[in-house]
Structures are given as C-alpha cells and as structure tokens.
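no rush on this but wanted to send it before i forget. theres a chain ive been looking at and ive put its sequence and its fold in token form underneath. please have a look and point out which stretches look like helix strand or loop to you. thanks a lot i owe you, the record is right below:
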Amino acid sequence: MSGHLHFKPAITKLAKDSYIFVEGKPNADKFYIVKEGKVRIIRENEDLHGDILNPGDIFGTISVMAGHGYIMSAVAVTDVTLLVIDRKQYGDLVRKTNSIAMKNIKTFSVRMRELNDHLSERMLKSSSTADSSVLFDIAEYYENSQKINHAVYVYHQYLNNCPNGEKIEEAKQKLEKLQNYVSVDRPSYPENTMMQKYPKECLLFAEGEMGNNLYIIQSGSVKIIKIVNNQEIVLAVLGKSDIFGEMAMLDDKPRAATAEIYEECTLLAVNKDNFSKLIHDQPDMVVKLTSMMAERLWLLYRQLDNTFIEEPIGRLFDALIIQLEKNKVDLTSKDSYQCSFGYKELMGMAGLAVDRADGLYNKFLDTKKVLILEDKLQVNNVSETFKEAEYYRNMQKKENSVRESKNKDKEKSATSEN
C-alpha cells in the first residue's frame, strides 16, 4: 500500500543494560521497533527467555495490542535507538504498508505454535504432534466415551487426512457400524461461506486434521480440548470476539487441538483467500485481527506461567484470575463475577487431572472465594480472589528463590572442591 504515515514515531535512545519495559507492568501502551542496536526479551520463568532482537524487529506488540500488562521484559543488550509507537498508531502503520501487518501476523502464528507445543509439554506431559494419525486415537476415545457424533466425525477426518493410514480399514469398519447411531447431523458449509452456525456439543474440528479456516466467534462459546492419556483436558473456553484456528490456516500444519462448540455458536470463518483480501483491502479489520491474535498469545503466556505454580489450589486460583484478566475484569473490584465455565473446565485450564484431585474440590470451595451455581463458577469478591492467587504466586517465587540460592551454593561448593 502506498501513502504516508499519519504520524511521526517518537525516537528514544537508551544505554546498554537499560530496561525498556518490565514484565508485569500494567496497562502496556507502547511498542517498539529496533532502529539501531540489539534488545533481549526476558521472561521471569527461566526456560521462557526470549530472543535477541535486531534492527527492524518489533517488540511489545502482544501486550499492547491485547490491552494487558507487559507479558515480558525488554532490556538493551547494546546502546539502542528505538522507534516508539502507541497502540492507536498501529492502524497508520498498517495503512502505510501491509507488510508490517503480515510480519506481525506470521510472527504471532509461529509463536502460537511454539507456545502451544511448550504448553502441551508442561501441562499435559506430552509433546504436541503434527501427525494426522492421532485422529484415529481421538476417534476411538470418543467412541469409547459413547460420544458417537464426535467419533463419526473424527473417523471421517482420519480417512480424509490419512488415506494410506495403517488403520484405514479398521476406521472404515467402525464408521459403517457407528453411522446409524448419529443423533444430529453436523452442519456442512461450502468453502467460501464466511458466516457459519453450529449447535451445542458439535465438533468443529479435531486435533490432527488439516485446516483451511480461522474462526472469530460472533456469539456463543467454544471449548479448546486436548485428548491425552485417554483423558479430555480443556485448555480454554473461548467466547465472543475470540479468535482460534489461525495456526493451521496460516502455516499449513495440522490442527494443534480439538474445538468443540460449548454453547450454540455463530462463527466468522476466514480462509486463506479471504484472509489475503482482508489484509489488502481492510486495514481496520487487520488491526482487529492482530489484536485478537495478541490476546490469544497473551493468554498462552499466562497459561504457561500458571504451569510453574506447584501448589494445585494455587494453580486453580491463578487459572481463574487469568480468565478474569482475559475478560478485562477490574481486579480491584469487590463485586462478584459470574464465569461462563465450571469447575471441570477450570481444572483443565490449570492442567490438573479431575480424577486425581483428591480433596481439591472441597478445599477450593472451603476458601469461600467461589461458589458453583448451575454448574458455573461464581467469584464472590474479585479483589479477594485476586489476593488469593497473588499469595500462591508469591509463595512460588520465594520457593524458586530459595531453590536457586541452594543450587548456587552447591555449584560454589563443587567448584571449590575441584
């Protein structure tokens, strides 16, 4: 796209080792482009340290576009010169050149795939797979769980995605047997249908199938699920304006998780052709899409942070606060808040197996911070619940600090002995 920027970015110069912004600082309002020098991105959790950034690289966009606090820290590795950009100026950047938008969107997509893999390893103790053969196992899980509609859909996906699969004949036999027991037909739409509707408890797509669309929820809600060790883990419950399915659409890899309609949904489906046209013709929509992807990335980072809390009840409270943060709830409010999900879904969000949670359910309710009304969680007092989560986060930081100090003492001792 041609034209001139409607603003002149501010320029700032910082000395080596200066912090540009700090993880946890609320209300992130500025992101940066490296003009000269190098910048390191740092995450508090040791194995989430980021990369070295060079001239032309953009950073801080996830937190700013998502409208949350900074999810990481940025420090100058050398003396640096930076372009400083406000969130509201992003649209002008996109209008100037859509290459900025595409660079951000592709970077976000790659980072989502990485974070999803890392989250699977930490939450589910298993690696994410890009192998479509996993579809047969997922279909068999649903068959054994008597979710016949789900099983039939996923067996079909196995046949479509693995035409030479080892279990192709077995899948055909199972389909023939189960086909007559399907209770509700799953809606099917032509490739270019952008507005789509799906009933409650319908499978939208399964982990392992190839994907052509990303989806933006117009109404209703969607559960994002992983099937691990014969157990269904709920990674997230997404609601209006949330985006999902973008990774498979953007990088031509199989779906990384399963999406099930939690409440009757209207979805905006965007395929590659529509996406390219949207990028070119509608910069305002691109800004909105970038914001949605940033929100999803922010959520993944927070979910990863949650996995480092070792106390199970602490994990639960932190997972609950993540959902409140996601919905822009004022965490200083003393009001109650009605959640759109129940205890089972919260357990999944915290990476905790429901069948191994001995006494955790009662312990969680005994805090008097939450109630369960009609199978949905209600927070009695938002600020008090936030303090509860903060207590467990701070306890974990202290434990980590003590552990790190002991490890350093051991290293010093070993060095002196040598």
Notes: DSSP finds 13 helices and 17 strands in the chain.
